Amino acid sequence: MYTIGTAGHVDHGKSTLIKALTGIDPDRLPEEKAREMTIDLGFAWLRLPSGKEVSIVDVPGHEGFIHNMLAGVAGIDLALLVVAADEGVMAQTREHVAILDLLELSHGVVAITKKDLVDEETLELVRLEVEELLAGTSLAGSPVVVCSAATGEGLPELVDALERELAQTPPRRDIGRPRLPIDRVFTLPGLGTVVTGTLTDGSLKVGEEVEVVPGGLRARIRSIHSHGRAVERAMPGRRTALNLPGLELEALERGMVVTRPNWLVPTNIVDVRLRVVSYLRRPLRHNMGVIFHAGTARVSGRLILLDRDEVRAGEEAWAQLRLESPVAVVRGDRYILRDPNDTLGGGTIVDVHALRHRRFHLPTLLRLERLASGAPEQRVLELMGPHGHITWGELVSQVAMAETEARQVVGELVAQGHMVVLPPQGLEADTVLASSQALGRWWEVAEEALGHYHRQWPLRRGMPREELRSRLRLPPKAFSALLSLWERDGKVRLAGEAVALSSHRPQLAGEQRRQADLFLEALRQRPYAPPSAGALDPELLSYLEEERLIVRVAPDVAFAPEAYQEMVDKVVAALQRQGRITLAQVRDMLGTSRKYAQALLEHMDRCHITIRVGDERVLRRRD
Ligand code: GDP
User: Fold this and answer.
1) Mutate which of 12, 16, 21, 113 to test ligand 1's pocket (most atoms within 8 Å of Cβ)?
2) If you average pLDDT over every residue of the chain, what do you get?
3) Average pLDDT for 585-606
4) Cis peptide before 214 (omega within 30 of 0)
5) Which of 330, 406, 420, 456 is the most buried (most CB within 10 A)?
């Protein structure tokens, strides 16, 4: 599926040519009809002699509507540059070619139209002018066809040239992450809200849930239209209209992107490779205000030059764009910079969700080089950023490659020892991919935090897992996997919910030891009716319990372990003899008070030794 976009100066005959080729009048707005000028985008489609259908976006040539032109060329495969024979190359011919060149669009056909208005000599001059204009751009060497929409002369040749050029255009990639940058929003009676755009990177089908980014609104696609008919599935590279009932017209606007939910995160700071248009008279300066165009979005921002103070016509630089509002872009997308009057430059987005960089910082510049040109492995590693880790979900949304390819690359990096996957059993959105540096840093943080915790709470077995997890800011599954790794390496000890450095031994010191000894001695003196445990420091009490020096059966009742075992044995023996026993019988048998007997029996219930039946206990049957 291909989409052709027109380009060229206002009034050079673009709309007339499209109408002559397709029978469809792309100038659909009444305002345009009245003024005979394309203000916004017009749409049509053409059936080629081979039977293939192509979408056509007719863009405005008027300089006041360049932003509409940019929205129109988002996602086109081939440019149809229209030059009127009676005027030749004009300001917007030049600007449109500069834009197509910055977008690195390398497939084009030139139509020198209005042939009926000029003589052969003028035609030749215009042809030379066009060839000169295209030389050195991505469109250099594009076929040129002379024609007239008025007489129909040259139109069959033009269609042939389009067909031949499209045959050499690589088909639209389908990486399973469909994006539809919205170029129009309107409502239709009985249908509700409809958005249109040129679909890229994947397909969408009726019934599917989609998200609109930025904003995060959700909707289900009720119907899809393409080339004037309803279709079940929209394919990449095609003009597509989606009916999204339930979304308010006012909530949507050109520049937003319709996509599958939960992966595309809007950003307002991007790193880019920047090239300045070759005929610009003034340099671009660090920190200047610019208008950023990507897809169909247009946002004001500031240009941060990372490796110089100014860039002149035709030069390239590394730059960062800090935008006033978020845009939904992915790595590898092309962008254009303008000011209110001129196209200034453009290029490729190298990193989305960038950090603020120091300028003239060599490691940053080297990283951008690697991101822009590196092999897939390199790109994945660079995406892990200075901290050396990323979730699988983030990686998939940023890496600009198909998920299956990303899986392969991750597999290779793991095999080569460059990456650890946490947890290792399969890749899910919250799976964490980490470099060995990241593992090292996490361990530094954990060792420090655990050490501090042990000093603060020397009697505790360790730090609660959750507390350590929040220090490391890791998703739960990845964190558990990391703990297992550390346990296996003998770095930590895990006991229930507690994590401890493996060197940590809870120890009593000074006054605490004296208190503990006194308490334990008191337990031995009065084994079945010991002094209340409530008087003891709770930390100390927990420690004695964890170390199994006491058995705590109620908040303030603890027994020496031997005493506890004797009592349990006696109760069990009695139950085996007589089948059931009351609280009072236990109290008398042990020569203790009701309080202790009750605490003991309730604890035995909790330990599944006994069951309470009315006022009595019976042995729990062990099956
Ligand atoms: P656009 O702004 O590039 O879309 O230009 P239009 O298609 O609106 O055409 C501008 C004017 O040129 C209109 O008045 C057309 O009738 C006229 N025009 C377009 N193509 C031809 C042509 O092949 N021959 C002649 N004589 N006039 C043309």
Assistant:
1) 16
2) 89
3) 93
4) yes
5) 330
Nearest residue to 244 via CA among 289, 306, 180, 291: 180
Contact at 8 Å (CB) between 433 and 392?
yes
What ligand 1 atom has the least distance to the C-alpha of 117?
Answer: 26
Angle at 385 between CA 381 and CA 391, to 5 degrees: 75
* Higher pLDDT pick, 42 / 44: 44
Taking CA 502 as the corner, what is the angle to CA 496 and CA 507, rounded to the nearest 5 degrees? Answer: 85
Neighbours of 535 (CB within 10 A): 10
Nearest to 519 by CA among 547, 549, 548: 549
Tokens describing residue 220: 């289900």
Question: Which DSSP state fits 250?
Answer: G
Which has more pLDDT, 372 or 359? Answer: 359
C-alpha Rg value of the chain to the nearest Å: 37
Atom of ligand 1 nearest to the CA of 9: 3
- Torsion angles phi and psi, residue 159, rounded to 5: -60, -40
For residue 171 the two structure tokens come to: 């088909």
Q: How far apart are CA 206 and CA 185, in angstroms?
A: 18
pTM (2 decimals)?
0.69
Task: Enumerate residues lining ligand 1, CB below 6 A.
Answer: 8, 10-16, 36-38, 61, 113-114, 116-117, 148-150
Run of H or E including 210? strand 209-213
Amino acid identity at 313: A
Residue 521 is given by DSSP the state H
**For 14-20, what is the mean pLDDT?**
91
